[in-house]
C-alpha cells in the first residue's frame, strides 16, 4: 500500500546536521503512513554514508548536469508515492515529534490549500541579525502576513497532484519555491503558515555568501515579478532594514557588536539583489 505522505530530503554536504534531522524524522508520531525519499547532490563529506545507515530511506539520483533546484525537485516528486509531499532539507531539524502531523494535517483537511510551510527557528549559534530576520519572516506570522508574499520550501508540504500538474520552474536559480507558490495563488489556491510545526534552520552567511545569495534572488525576481528595483527603492529598503536592525539590537547588549555591521550587511544585500536583477533584465533584452 502506498504511504499517505512522502518526505523529500535534499542534501549536499550536510553531515553537520543530517544525523539529527534523520533521528527526528524517525521519531515522528503521525497517524498517517509516510516514506522518506532522499536526493543528494554529490556530497563529498559523510552525508551519503549517514543516509545509507537508514535502510528504509529510498534514494533517488539527481538529474545529470549542473544543480538546478527545480529540476532536482521535479525528479524527486516523480519518485514519490504519497498523496502529500513534504519537502524538508537535510539541515532543517524537526524540533517536535508531531512536526509531520502538524505540517500536513491542513492539507488533508482543506481542499483549497495548495501548500503549507513550517516555522523555522534559528540555531543556537545564529547571529542576532539572523535571529531578527527569522522572527520577522516566521514567528507568529503576523509580520510576514503584511508582505506582498512569503513562502519557504525548506520545510513545507504540498499536494503531489498539484506538484505533478504544475511542476517547479527549472529556469530560476534559487527562488523556485516562491515562483511555484505565486503561480498556485494565481490559480486561486491558498498557502498556509503552520507556526506549530517547528524546525531548526538558519545560516550565518558571510558577506560574500550573502551577496551571492541575493544576486541570485535578484535575478530570479525579474522572471517572477518583472522590472529591477531602482536606486531609490534599493537604498530605501537598506535604510529601513538597518533601522529595524538597530531597534532590535538596542535592548540586547549581547548583540551590540553587530550594530556597526548592520548597515553594511543591508547595503550588500540590496545592492547585490539589484545587480542580479539588472543583469537578468539585460539578458532578457538581449535574447
From TrEMBL:
GO terms for biological process: single-species biofilm formation. Coiled coil: none annotated. It comes from the Bacteria. The keyword Nucleus does not apply. This is Glycosyltransferase. Residues 6-109 form the Glycosyltransferase 2-like domain. The keyword Transferase applies. Keywords: Transferase.
